[in-house]
Amino acid sequence: MNKKQMKKILTDMAHTRVSCTAQEKEAAEYLAARCEELGVKARLESFGVETGDVSFASLKADGSDVPCTGYKLCGSGSVKAQFLYLPHLDKASLAEAKGKIVMVDGYLGLFPYKDIVDAGALGFITYDGNVRYADRDIDSRAVRADLAEGRKILGVNVNAKDAAKLVKAAPKEIEIRVEQKEYTGESHNVVAELPGESDEWIVLTAHYDSTPLSPGVWDNMSGCVGILGMLEAAAKASRDKKLRYGVRLVFCGSEERGLLGSKAYVAAHEAELGKVALNINLDMIGSAMGKFIAVVSAEKQLVDFIKYYSVLEGWSIEARSGVYSSDSTPFADKGVPAVSFARIATANQATIHGRYDTMEVMSMPQLEKDIDFLSAFALRFIGAPACPVGREMPDDVKKQLDEYLGRKRKDQ
Ligand SMILES: [Zn+2]
User: What is the pLDDT of residues 221-247, one digit of tens each?
Assistant: First the structure.
């Protein structure tokens, strides 16, 4: 792919592609068609996702309306209670939450949701955006109720500007109303395969869905273009010499809903995962600003190898061991050595999960360089007589997997 072709894919797809929507499916079909153009067959694999269509949501503070969106999967109905801002969910704060509608900072992750439900909160408010941005966008979010064992409390999301107003106004009474239809929606992974000499695979992943307000150019159509470029490089190399490892692309759906596509993929293909030598995941590359990073969920030697290899290639990288919040994690959790690559810019330059994730944050020359580096790196493994990476996960990575996937709490 040249820069023009990369740019075309990014601009063609620069619109929302939310989990379980028609746009997400169109994007899946579009990416399958791009694989076929490279002479590689692709198929869609569907999986179910619990979701909700919110038809009504309101938030009243002492009788006046505050613009909001209702959380998917938080149930339907209305609740009235006292307002409480909880910037930290420590024991002292949670002791105050009983019978109240609580506002928390940031995302309401697995344990925070369980904690406020356990504490007896009757509803919750989150916020996003930035008090200084001109927009008044409000993302629409979904509850991840896994740990709360189906217990639901009503929740809404507001803009950061209104969140600050609410805290300053300290309203006596808050009322939340949400109406929605909850159901199992359909999302898709796109799987494309370039077989090798053996029946073993290097699996390249990148998610193609976006959040509700985001054109999702950097996060993560850039990664999709990345693995397409790597597939093209592998296909080209295999014309001269049959490659030992097959290359399998998995464009994951519903990543933004909690890595649901990659979780569905590893569940559906569990029996074959022993034949996956390595997972290389891309989540956000090719931004004009920012540093290139690698997060390795595998034995430490792979971190060292990436560091050495990068220096030999004259490539600037920050490589570390750990768990990345992306589709490499479900693979690592099933014992597949996995690495996520990304080019990470500061929030002053590029923000994700909102209207600002556009072509403007991208640099086509940088994207091309990132893909060249990644293709050369991947080809070292794809063409090697054996994959040197062992399959024993270090204990600290296992611990981080338990924490990230909500099986264990982080040490406080
Ligand atoms: Zn992403």
Answer: 999 999 999 999 999 999 999 899 999
Residue 412 in any domain: the answer is: no
Q: Take residue 30 and report the two structure tokens written for it.
A: 């579009």
The CATH number given to whatever domain includes residue 70 is 3.50.30.30
Q: Provide the residue range defining the domain that includes 308.
A: 3-50+186-404
Residues paired with residue 259 on neighbouring β-strands, in sequence order: none
Give residue for tokens 């290639």: 313
How far does the centroid of ligand 1 lie from the alpha carbon of residue 216, in Å? 8
258 Cα to the center of ligand 1, angstroms: 10
Q: How far apart are CA 358 and CA 369, in angstroms?
A: 19
Is 177 inside any structural domain? Answer: no
Find the 325 Cα to ligand 1 centroid distance in Å.
Answer: 8
pLDDT tens for residues 9-35? 999 999 999 999 999 999 999 999 999
| Strand 174-194 versus strand 42-61 pairing type | antiparallel
What spacing in Å lies between the alpha carbon of 326 and ligand 1's midpoint?
6
Instruction: Say if residues 351 and 218 touch (Cβ distance below 8 Å).
Output: no
Q: Is the pTM higher than 0.85?
A: yes
User: CATH no. for residue 302?
Assistant: 3.40.630.10
Please give the Cα distance from 362 to 147 (Å, whole number): 37
Q: Are 348 and 290 in contact (CB under 8 A)?
A: no
Task: State in Å: Cα 244 to ligand 1 middle.
Answer: 30
Residue 410 within a domain: no
